[in-house]
Structures are given as C-alpha cells and as structure tokens.
Amino acid sequence: MGVLRALRGFFTGVGARSGPARGENGGSVVGAVPAAITTFAAVVISILDQLEDAQGGRAEAYRQLESVLWGDESDLQSSVAGRAIALAAQDLRVAQDTTAAVRMAASDVLVALARWHLHDVVSVLQGHLQALEEMSVELVLHTLHNLAIRYALQCVPFAGKTLAALRGVLSTAGSSRMLCAVCGVVEQWCSGISAYLRQREKCDFPHLGAAQLCAPVYSLGKQAMLRAMAVMMGVLLHAEEHHQHAWEQLLWLLHQYREVQDPSGVTRSLSYFLWAVMDVQAQVPRAKILAVIAAVHEQLCDEMEPPSPGHRAELCHCMVLQARICPEETIVFLYYKLRTGNKVDRVAAVEMLQALVRCDAPDVREKLPLFTKLVQSVCHDPAAQVRKAVLRFLGELLHSSALGCSAWDVVGHLFGEFSRASGRLATGKLSVVEVWEERTVQRLCAHVLGSLDVSAGAVAKLLWPRLLQYVVPAEYTGMLVPLCRCLRALAERTERTEGEEEKAAPEALKPAEPAPLPAPQALLARLLVSTGAPGEGASVAGVRGEPGEMVLQLVLGTPGGGGRSMVVAAVAPHTGGGHGAAALQLLQVLCGTIHRAVGASWATEIPLLLQHLAGTTAGFLDRAEWDSLLLKFLRASLEVIASEAWTVELSRELSRQLGGSPRLSWEKRFLYKALGTALAACGCLRHVREQTLQHLEATNFLELWEAQGIVSVVSRCAESHFQLALSSVQQFTGTLKHRKQSHALRNRAARATLMVIYGRMALRAPREQLLTHVERDIVGNVLQLYREGCQDAQLKLSLVQSVTEISLAIQAADAGPRFELCCKRELLQMLLEVMQEEPQESPVQPRALMAVEQLSKLKPRLSREEKCSLLAQCCRGVVCLRHPEQMEARGEAAAAAPVAPGVQAPALRALGQLMRTLLREEPAPICFEDVVQVLRHWLASAEECERERALQVCVQLLGAHEEQREHGRGRACEQFGSLAGLLGPLTCDASAASRWRAATCLGHLLQIGAETTDVAPCTNEIGYLRERLNAVAPDSLLATSTNIAKLVCKHVPQGQAADFMDTVMESLQCTRPVRAWAAGRWALTFLGDCGEQIFQEEVPELVTILCTCLQSTQQSTRRCFVLRAMFILARCHQEPVIDSLLQRCLPMDSNTVEVWRSLGRSALGYPILERLTEKLRAAGDSSQGSECCARELGSSQAALEPHTIIRALCEMVSVLQSEGLVQHLLPDLLPSLLGQVSETLREEMEPSLREPESSDTSGRLFVEVLELVLSKCLEERWLRLLREQGAWASLAEPQAHSAGVCLLASVLLRAELVPPRLLQNLSTWLDSCSANLRLTATAFFAELMKDRLVEERKLLKPLLEAFAARARDPVSAVQQMAMRGLGNAASGAPVKLQRHGAAVVAVLRGGLEDGASVEVAAESLLALAKVLGPLVARAIGSAFEEVTRSSRAFWGAEEEALRCSAFTLYGALAASASASGRRSFFSREVEASFPSLVLHLGDPAPAVRDACKMALHRCAPFLASERVRRRVAASTGLSAAELQDELCRHLARDCPALLESLCHMAQSCCTGSCQAPQEAAVRILGLLMNAAPAERPQRQDPASRWGARQRQRCNRSPRARRAAAVGTRQPGAAEL
C-alpha cells in the first residue's frame, strides 16, 4: 500500500497538515518548565545544556524542548537554533547508547525547529542521507516525511536537492521497509509540490516553474517505479496463481530499456527479479527467458551508448543468473550469436562466456568444457576486438585453474596470436588504429601468459618442454618476460617437489622426450641478447652506444621508422617489468642445462647484474655500460667453460641468430658485439680469421646496423688477436681497389667503415702493440683510404672519428715524452680543411672539433700562432651552428642539416675541452686573451642562438681560466673590463638560458678578479641574483641586472674603463629593447659608482666612445642613456670632458650639439659655461701672445680653437633655463666674445668715408653668439633697439665695429648691465698689443663716458688718462675713439671735468695738429664742442683764441666731417664767448668770418649747411649791423638755403660793404682746390647777381670778373657746372 500511495502522490500531490507531536498514548507531550527560567531563549539554552551534560533522560528533555518550541511564537536566535539542530541531528545517528525513543524525540525537535529555521534543518537532513546505516536513514526519512506534512509549501524550494538525494537512497534500498519509507517521503513532498502549483501566487518566495519541479520528480518516479515493480514481481512469484502477471510485468520491465535514459536501474531491477526467480525456482517460460537474454545481450552490444563498467558487470551478472536458471537456452543463444552474429555480437557473447567462467557455482563450472569449445569456434576470427575478447576469456580460464582444460591448447593459441600480431605489425601497412589494436593483442598475450598457473604437477610436466621451445625464436621476444617467469616457476616447483614425486626432474629435460630441446649455445645466446635489448620506446638517439656508432649513423643515414621490428619495442630490461631481469634469472636456473662449469660463477655474477638493474630505471640506464657488463659476463663465462669447441659452436650460433634477426633491431646490434667477444675468447685462430673475413665480405656497408656491427666484431676481436685482426682488415682493404665500378656506392661506404674500424682497433689494441703499428699500419691506412676515396661528408666524418679514436688510444697507451706523431700537423691541417669545406650546419664540424681537441694533446706541441688560428676556426665552426627550426624559419632546405640539434652539445663540450687543454699548455693570461678576442664577436652577435652558444663557450673558458688562476695571481685580468661590459647586458637577453649563462660568466669573472686583487668576489650574491633572472617581466629583469652591475662594476680594474664602456655601448645598439636598456643601466651604474676612479688619460677615449655611440643611435630612449652617461662622466671629470668635446672637428655635427645642449640643461650647465668662458678668454689671450694664459691653463688648453668654444657656448646658452646664470657670467663672457669679434675682422677697423666692401663670416659667428648671450640678459625692448639700430651688423663690419661697440655699450648702460668686473676686464685691453682690442675697449669706454656711472664709480680721472694715452695711439681709429671719449666726459661728469679742462683741451687740440687723420680731427672738433659747454672760456685761457682760429681753418676743408665739426665747434665757441669775457675778441672774429658763414649756408653737404646755420644763429649777437642781427634772428624758421638767399638780398640792398666782402670771399673760394667750397661760392655768386640792383651801371666789378672765371671752372668740375646752372637760373642771371 505504501508503494501505491507513493505512486499516487506523483500524480495527485495532495498536501496535509499535522499537529504537534504526539506521545505514545496519543496525547500531546507537554513538559514542565522550571519556574526560575522565564524567557524563551533561556529555557531553550537550559534544556540544551542538560542534553549536552547528559543529565536525566534525553528523551524527556527532547520532549520538553519540543513543547517549548511549539508553545512560543517568538523567533529563536540563530546561534541557539544551530546548537539545537546539531544536537538533534547527532542523536539521529544509530549509536549503542541511543534508544529509539531518543531518536524519535530528536526527530520531532527538528520538525519543531524548522518553523523558523527550515533551511538549516533540511540542509542537515540532506547531508545525513549519505553514508548512513539503514536505521539512521529511516529516521531521516521519517523526519523529512513530517516536514513535508507540516511545511508543505515552504519545502517546495528544497524539493529538487531532496529528491536528488532520495534517488541515491532508492538505488541502495535493500529491503521493502526502506523502499516503503522512501515512497512515503516522496508521496508527501509531491503533495506539497502539487499544492504549490495550485496556489503559487500566494507564496512569498520566488516562483518556480512547473518544468523545474517536475524534472527531479520524473527521474525519481521512474526509478521508484522500477524498484517497486521488481519488488512486487518478486512477491508475486511466491504464489503460482500470480506467475502469469509477473511474466507480463517482466515484459514491461524489459521494455523500459527503450524508455529510460539510464538503463542501469532497469538492469538492477532485472537482476533483483532473476535472483527472486532462482530463489523460488520458478519455471520461466522459454519465450520470456529468451527475451531477457536478448535484452541483456543487446545492452552489451550497444555501440552508440556503451554501458559503463559497473553496468556491464551488472549485465554479465544477469547473464550468469540466466545461465543458472535456463542453461540450455543460454548456451544455444550464445552459440547462435557466435556463429551468425556480427563482430559486436561475438564480442558480447565471448564476454558473457567469460563471466560464466568466472562463476564459482558448481552447476556452471561443470559446463566449462562446453564454454571452451564455444570460444574455440572463434579463435581464428580476424577481428581484433574478437581476438582480444578470446584472449581475455583464456586469461580468465587459466586464472580459474579449471580442470579438464588443455593448457597446451591455451599456450599454443597465446603464442600464435602474438606471432600473428607481430607479423601484421612487421608489414608496416597498418593504420594507426590497427597498430594500436595489434599491440594491445600482444600485451594481452603477455598478460595472459603471465597469469598461467603452474601449480599442478601434470600441467608442469606438460608445460616445461613446450614453453622452453619458445625461448630461442626471436619472434617471441615480446613474450619473453612472462615466458621466463613461467619457466622459472616451473623449475622452482620441480626443485621444491623433488623427492615427493616419482621423478626428480622434469620429463621434458630428458632427451627421450619427443619434443626437442634447444641447444645450450642457442639458449645462452638468446637469453643474453634478450637481456641486452633496449627498453620499450627506446630510440637510436635516446640510447648512448659506442663512439663510432653515431658517426656511422651519420655517414650511412638514419634508419627509417617503418622497418623497426617489434623487438625494438620490447619491454624494458628492468627488474619487475623488463625481460633483462627475467632472462638473467632464467639463465641462473638453466646454468646446469647450458654448462656444468658455470654454476658457481653464475651464482655470483648474475645477482650482481640483477642488482645493477635494480638500481636503475628505464630512462637512466646507460646502455653502453650495461652492454659492457653483459659482454664481460659472456667473456668470463667462456673463460670458465674453457672449451674451444664449445666457443666455436657459440660463435656459429651467434652468426646464425645474426642472420635471422630483424634488419633494424637492437638485437642485431648486440649479436655483433657478442660475436666479437666470442671470437676474442676463441683460441682457434684459423676460425677467427675465417669468421672475420667472412663477415667483412658479407657485410652490406650501406646498411647502418651492419656497418656498426662489423666495427664491433673486428674491434672486439682485436682485443685478443690484434695483429690477426689488423692483417685481416688490411687484406680486405687491399681488395677494394679491384672491386667493380658498379659497386662505387658500396665501396665508398666500405672505405668510411674501414676508417672507423682502424680507429676502433687502435682503441682496443694492447698498449705494447699499438705504438709500433699506429703510425704506419693504422694512420697510414686511414690517410690512404681518405686520399683515394671521394672526399665527401661520409668520408670526412669517418676521418674525424678515426683520428679521434687514434688520438685517444695513443693517450691511453701512455706513450711517454719520446713518442711523437710525425703526421700530427698534417692531420690537423686536414681537419681544419674539413671544417672549412663543410657547411656550418654539417655534423662534421662538431666531430672535427673533438678530433682537434684530442689530437692537440699529442706531441709535438703547437706554437702560439698555430693555436690561435686553430682556436679561431674552431670557435667559428661551433658558434655558427644553427637549429633546424631556425633554418626552416629562414626557408633553408631541411637536407642542409642531416643531424639533430644534439650535435651542438658535444661540439660545445669539445670546444671547452680544447680550451682547457690550451690553457694548461700555454700561460693562462696569454691564451685567455686570445680566446676572448675570438669570442667577443659572437657574444655580440645579433643571432640569439649564436649568443647562447658563445655564452656556453665563455662559461667553460672562464671556468678553465679560474682553475689556472695561479698563473695570473698578482696580475689584473686585462680582459675583465671588456668581458664585463659585454656580458652585463646579456643578463637581459631574450633567452633565459643566455641570461643564466651570462650571470654565471660574471660570477667566474668576479672570482678571477678577486684572486688577482684580493677583493671579496660577491659570488654568493651573484648566484642569488642569477636565480632571479628567470623572471619574464622586463622591469624585474632590468632591476636584477642593475643589481648585478653594482656588484661587478666596482671590480673593474683601473685602466679598463674604456674597454668596459666600449663593449657596453655596442650592446646599447642592440635591436632588443630590454637588452639595450640593460646596457644603458650598466653604463650609468659604472660611471656613477666608479667614475671618480677613472684615470684622467682615459676620459678622452670615453668621450669618443660615447659620441660615436650617439652618432650611430637614433632611438630617443637610448640616446638619453648616452647623454646621461656623458653628464655623469663630466660631473666626475669636468675639465677632460670639456677638452675632449672641444677637440672634435668643425663644423659641429648634430650629435655634438645635442651633447652640449644636454650638458647645458643639466646641473653642470653653469660650471661648464663658466669654464668655457675661461677657455674662450684664454684662447683670446693666446692669440695675442700673452704668457699669462699659458701659465694659467697650459699651452695645450690655451691653443683650443675659439670657434669650437664659441659653438659650444652657443648651444649651452641656448638651452639654459635661468637667465641669471648668463647674466652672472656676462662680465667675463662679454669681453671674451667682443674680443673674438674684434680679432676675427680681416682688416683694421678704421672708419672710412667710403661704403664697407666686405664682411667676415667668422666675425658674424661670434656676433650671433653675442646676440644669443645678450638675449638671455636683456629685455626685449633693448634687443629690439639693438636690431633697429643695426648694432649686430655694425659689430661684424670692420668699418663700423666701433660704432657697433658704442651702440652696445649704450644699451648695456641703459639696461644697467655694466658691472665693475666687466669694466675691469675691458680695461686691460686699453693697453693691449692688439690694435683691434684697443679700439674695442676705447670705443666701449668712450660710450661709457656719457653716463653718470663714470662719476659714481670714480672712473673719470683714470679714463681721462687712458684716453690721453690713446690719443697718441698709432692707430687713427683708436685716436678717434679716445677723442670721442674725452668729449663724452662733458656728459658723464661735467662738474669734475672742470678740474681737468685745460689738460683735456690740450689733448683735443693735439688732434687738430697737422698729421692727424680726418676722422681724428673731426672727432677732436666735436669733442671740443662738447667740452666747451661745462668749461668756461677763462678755464681754458688763451687756448680759446687758438681753438677759435683752428676751427675757422677747417671751414674750407674738402671733407664734410671736418667742415661740419668745425662749424659745430664754432657755434659752441660763440655760446661760450658771451659768458667768458671774450666778446670783443669773438665779435671781431664774427665780423671777419661772417662772409664765410653766409657762403657755407649753401654747402653741398646738408649736415654742413645745418651746422653753419646753427653757428650763424649763435654768432648773430656778435654782428655789428643791427639789421643783419635782426634778419638772422628772424630767420629761425628758414632753411639754410632760404636763409642764405634772404641774407644775399638783404646785403645787396642794405649792406654793400658786407656784400663786397662776401663777393671777395666767394672769389677766393672759387680759386681754391676744394670742390665743396667752390660749389658754395658758385651758388652764392649766382644769388648775389640775382640780388644786385637793376639800375647799377655795367662796369668791370667782381661780379663781371666772376663771369669769365665761372666758365673756366664749369668746364672742369661737374658739381661746379650744376652749381653754376643753379645760379644762372636765378632771376637776372642772364644779364650777368
């Protein structure tokens, strides 16, 4: 009924409510609450404490707790609730001291707690559904049932997980009671789900979909129905009247295989029903049992969804139950499937039979022979799956030790299947899947044979001879391990049962047995070969053989993989899993069968071999060592046997097995070695010679394994029969000449192999016989074979290997000092030619290198030059090797690299050994330097692989050099700096291996440096940092590399800074950014930490290195490193760095410009600028021949090119950020620049009235720098003023330089940039030997005299004295500036000038003397005009009159400047005469000079006219005629020409006397030689004729006389003609 209710709940899902828990009498359980406890939580805690302390009855306490929980509506705290839930859940478990009442009470408490904490309670119960006993599960189910009743809707969110947990309980339900309990819970939970689906809108939790809720219900329902149906059918079987209904339900159950997704539940229900059928022994209808068999078989044959291993076992169990219920129908069905079914049907049928064999039921076991016959019907099935199923069946059959089964038939089938699989694999035509299937068959055969039971005596007697026959055939090598174990077990059983059975020894060992036993030699050979075979998966390249085998492989080609036999893929020769140990153990058992004499020796030697195998694993077995041990074992056994006939037969047996062994197998390889060992132990020399020649003739030298084999045979034979073997090989060598040309390829391979044979014989030859034959018979034949053959790669490889082995043999023979290999240099030359001729990727290179290394150890010794040349070629050959992956990336043919990448490691090791050898023979420092020079190129290579190999070589080199450190103690390593600079950036190389090796090299280098300098090497720190170079992040790598640099740089010896920086800067140009950044950091670290210790002599070279690097580097980041390095170097050695930079040629390139600018922007900008200023001043002084500069800076520094300094100054000033720095240097910088400007002008800077003809570009350069410097000091308005007035152009022009200096001085004064130090520096030029400098200084101070600064700084007197001295300067330009300075003193110090008035006037008067230049005279006149202002006439005394007369003397001068200056001075004299008491004198002067003044109002020069007009206005007060005075005073607004015209009219009308004087003055000017006064005279005469009265009688007057004179003058002078024309155009001129 419970099942029916559960089923009904799936479809209806009706919910219900229940009240509080009831007691046993049906009433509610209400306990008494202590009066002292009043709160709800306190009551609960008190009860929980009671439960934890186990005080009183636990059931009663739980009842009290339940009552409290139901009686209070308040929520319980989470902590208290969790404590209560844990206690109650713990008591649900079945324990010895827990009664059923306590468990039921705990269940009711959980139901009560779920009112507030349903989630916690349900979670605990779900966890308890797993791994509990049946009784505990029942209580959990009971609790879940009550929860679903009490909280139907609230339980819905937990329905999915709860029903999933119930599925697990249902699958393990073992009783109907448990099944009913599960169904009850399912019923209640489904009722809750149905209630929720009807009123889901009323629920406050998130809505759940119907499909989401129905999925677990459907899955659990199906399982519950299947379990319930199986139980129901089992119950119905007990009543015969219900059998028909049970069979009908059985068909329904089988139909569920097609309905359900997981058929395992159906199978479990079916298994339950079949157990019930067998239990009640009910008679099942034949149709029904066949339906069951077919359904189970169909499930086993399902390929779309194969059954799991557990389900498959359950299906097989069902088949066993069916066979026990209906054996005949089952056997008929299986027979039918085996005969007519497909491959899958047959596999399933065999699997069912295997399950029947596994059954221990007597009624099943008695039918085992029948089952065996059924399987035998498919023994020859070609399908691999069927074959494997048959083998598994046989394994089960043998494992069950079934009586009546023919063990012989089973063993024969096992070996037959193994041979069949081997044959299919040998064809090489199988697919990958087929190969895997065949190998699986082989493994199954070996596994089944290993499970063979040999405990039965009859079986043992039968198996011994049969199994022993399978030992010798090579095709069963893969079965050797289980075969040996079976034979060993049989022998041990025979030994144990000796005396208990009738026969003490196995019958199979007796000759009377019909089965023939193998010969002892055959058993020994087979087992030794099997012991020496390699492990499974071993390859040619993965197992190290003898030295010549790899060379022959390279010469003759690598064997293809398709021809490898199964022997090569045999199991490994290791104890427990390999046939090596099994074969050795069987040998020990068969010692009496093989030979009686070996029993004692084998009892000792075989355990040692087993012990060696036990101490190694397959991946670490040294094949050469293992083969050597086996061959020694064979040689020792033959010596113990000591039978010539037995040994001869063994060699023949080995030859026979050699002929039958697979072509490409390790078995064949070991057979050759064993044959050589047997021939060496054989005492029959005739047989040995025959065998040797026979194998030489029969060998196919084109086959790799045969060529290697014949080498092993002959060389091992030579150990005992050296001369016989040597003569045999020589005899065969002589026959090569007579062989047919059609066999050229074979002959070529034969020559290569023979050369290897000669070398190998030398290795194995006795020492006393080797030295007498090595030069003539061995080396001679090798050279003859090489010369006569085609010198291709094959023959070269053979030559290399032969030379290597011969060299090793001579070294091992301990030749002594007297023995010398005469052909050593010839051999070396041949090896070097081989290395040069072969491509770099050829395997000849590394082999030749090893040959060179061994040959170099022999005498006679090589010279240093020969060793260097040898070493360079060897390094080139090794380092240039490339990986095949790189060749593919470059598009090169794969055929160019016939050797695997493994050739590189031997070559590197050989190169390392060669270097060690050379270091031992040569003094370490000398040879070390030679090797380093060779390696430097490769360490800086752009190819990653080349750098990596070069680093490997470098590690070996430094390690070897460190071992030879006693040779270099006390002497610094000369290559330390260059190596450290080269290796340092490689710590950030792209390859992790290269980084690690670079750090290792640096560690060695530090150790070497420490040994020579007694400084701690810090190798521990290097080792720690080296481990951190495995990082991937560039920042981490750079940080680690910088830390290494800090350790290494401080050990760089003094004097090697240039070498270090040179190599570091080369790395800075690397294409990989991280390595370049590392180089930059190494350079900065070295200069920062060790810059102060660098010798001054090295600094120029360092600067050159940095500049060169900057020139070849374009990336901005890397250029910053170089510039930073230059800054650090300049900070440590400022003076040498500046000198080095200044030594660079002009024009200055952009990189040098960038260096100067970077220094200008740095903190060294001001100091360097200050130093450049000093050097510029020194260069200027040097050009003047000054000795003080040479004493101060030295002759070399004083001779620096000024133009370079100027360029450097320009670049540095252009980037200076602070204007104050330049302004602070201005007092020193400005004089230097001005001096250079003045010195670079091509001619003396004397002013001229002509236009300037040319300018000097050098001077313009200095002017540009001067402009740049002042732009950092002056405001924009002052700069604009200088540009507008043309100051910069004037400075660069020789004729206008002084004017430019004056303009510059004027602006500096107005900008207040004339400090005392500037004046002090410029004052030294006043007495300079350079006229240009004197002129510049005089012009500057002349302009300075205008300013009050002269008076403030008390400079008037010294400057007046200086100007007085310069007034006598031989250069007129300097005199002119001196006169100007004296005149400007009137503006700068007018008051104090009165004290020196007479002296100043006297100097100025000296400028008016004869002999003075025009410029000087003009400047003197102007200066006198300026000085007369502050000086009174009485202050100058009688000089006033002299000055007045002197000024009038220049009115008629030809030069415009003189006339202008003279009139200016005359006006100044007029102004001074009024206040000096000289009025009467000056009035007379004015009366006399008035005609001249009027005349010069018409001067052709405008400046002269204006000066004359001004002078006339000032002289007007001194005129006697009142009318003239008024006329002049009233003409202030008129121009000079208008004034002249006005005066002429006035004179003609009112002052005839003055007019007459003017005419005479004009006449006198016309007769003069000066052209300008002539023009003025012509013009004034024209005006006079125009102004004459018309009524005057025509007579011969001055005007008439002028007419004739005018015509003559006009004919001579163009300017006079123009003036005459002007005069005649005046009104009335025609009449004149």
Helix share, percent: 55-70%
How widely separated are the two ends?
171 Å
Q: Residue-averaged pLDDT, rounded? A: 74
Segments where pLDDT lies below 50 for 5+ residues?
A: 1-38, 501-513, 534-544, 556-577, 885-901, 1186-1199, 1243-1256, 1590-1604, 1609-1613, 1615-1632
Shape: elongated
Query: Could you give the count of β-strands?
Result: 0
Radius of gyration: 63 Å
- What is the number of helices? 82
β-strand percent reads under 5%
Quick one: biggest sheet? Answer: none
Structural class: mainly alpha
What do these coordinates show?
The protein is mainly α and 1632 residues long. It is built from 82 helices and no strands. It is elongated, with a radius of gyration of 63 Å. The N terminus and C terminus are likely disordered.
